[in-house]
Amino acid sequence: ALNNRGYSKDTHREIKTVTVIGGGLMGSGIVQVAAATGHNVTLVDRDNELLDRCSVRIRKSLERVTKKKYSDDQEGGRCFLDNTLSRIKYTLDHEKASADCDLIIEAIMEDIDVKQKLFSGLDRVARADTIFASNTSSLSITEIAEATNRKDKFGGLHFFNPVPMMKLVEVVRTDLTSALTHMSLCAFGRALGKTTVDCKDTPGFVVNRLLVPYMAEAVRMLERGDASDRDIDVAMKLGAGYPMGPFELSDYVGLDTMKFILDGWNKKFPDNPLFKPIPMLSQKVSEGKLGMKSGEGFYKYEK
Ligand code: NAI
Questions:
Q1: Cα-flanking dihedrals φ and ψ of residue 276, to 5°?
Q2: Number of domains forming the structure of the chain
Q3: Binding of NAD(+): at which residues (predicted)?
């Protein structure tokens, strides 16, 4: 069976062992889902306290999943939980963790220099056939891959928060990503129980390229006084059928994250009016009103 790019759907390498670098919000979710679907996973972060926090978060989340999934089969649930947890290793040692695995997924901070430095080091220690993937939301996969000598084995795997709940993975292909790498990443996404979509390496891929300018336009609308934040949210929920309004969504994503993405794109594409800075957004961020995580963004939240 050939797909629309003319290569066989069956030509992929199965990914069994995965190393995830960065055990924050995204990395811990990726580790959880990969282990729950039978992959052997190693999680790397910067200090033991972070690793401990991460292992507690993963265990708690897995316990919730297990309770739901095995509500009438306690023994099966215990088995699933124990097996899943036994497939996860935690370490501070990047090099050891990366020396022998099928795939390395990077989920560290959104900074091109830091990501390039990390991958350049991993490139030297990883097996020649190990595939590298970044979970970046807004940076160019092509640019990150430039730090390595395996640009054909480099792609994007863009997950969504919360990873255990969200069904989508965007599988990003640069001009240099090989068909084998791309197909292997797609197959891995499916093995995690996710639906994958193919994306070229363009800013924001599919979801964020549409969503971030949409949220930005909502803030500009509020800034002009066209309507209130509450009314805009109600309008988009009841009129467009969206589960959350743009301000609820902005608060959920984090206003600092939204500003960071817009600023990065504006710097790179200064002619695009959709990416221009928004004074109201900058003001909120400078006041520490970052959304749900800080207790206040467009709305107030109980901590
Ligand atoms: P986070 O701040 O929660 O976690 C980052 C983790 O990486 C931290 O635990 C940090 O200690 C660790 N880290 C940083 N540098 C490291 C290094 N050199 N070696 C090992 N560990 C290191 O960040 P989050 O939200 O999980 O984001 C991670 C990546 O995923 C970013 O590139 C972000 O753009 C992307 N992303 C974020 C989404 C979100 O909704 N938060 C959604 C999709 C992608």
A1: -65, 150
A2: 2
A3: 22-27, 45, 110, 115, 137, 161, 293
Pocket lining: 167 vs ligand 1, CB cutoff 6 Å: no
**What's the start-to-end Cα distance of the chain, in Å?**
52
28 Cβ below 6 A of ligand 1: no
List the residue whose alpha carbon is closest to atom 42 of ligand 1.
Answer: 160
pLDDT in tens, 13-27: 999 999 999 999 999
With the C-alpha atoms ordered 192, 168, 7, 147, is the resulting torsion angle positive or negative?
Answer: negative
pLDDT in tens, 105-120: 999 999 999 999 999 9
Residue 3 within a domain = no
Measured in angstroms, how far is the CA atom of residue 110 from the centroid of ligand 1?
7
Among this protein's residues, is 137 annotated catalytic?
yes
Amino acid at 299: Y
Residue 236 Cα to ligand 1 midpoint, Å, equals 30
Could you tell me the distance, in angstroms and rounded to a whole number, from the CA of residue 25 to the centre of ligand 1? 7
The residue among 200, 221, 236 that closes a domain is 200
- Is residue 24 lining ligand 1, measured as CB closer than 6 Å? yes
Question: What ipTM does this complex have?
Answer: 0.98
* Domain ranges, residue 70: 17-200
State if residue 106 touches ligand 1 by the CB under 6 angstroms criterion: no
- Torsion, Cα 199 45 61 165, to 10 degrees, reads -10
- Whether residue 24 is annotated as binding a ligand: the answer is yes
Which of 169, 200, 231 is the C-terminal boundary of a domain?
200
| Residue 264 annotated as part of some ligand binding site | no
Q: Tokens at residue 191, please?
A: 């093995």
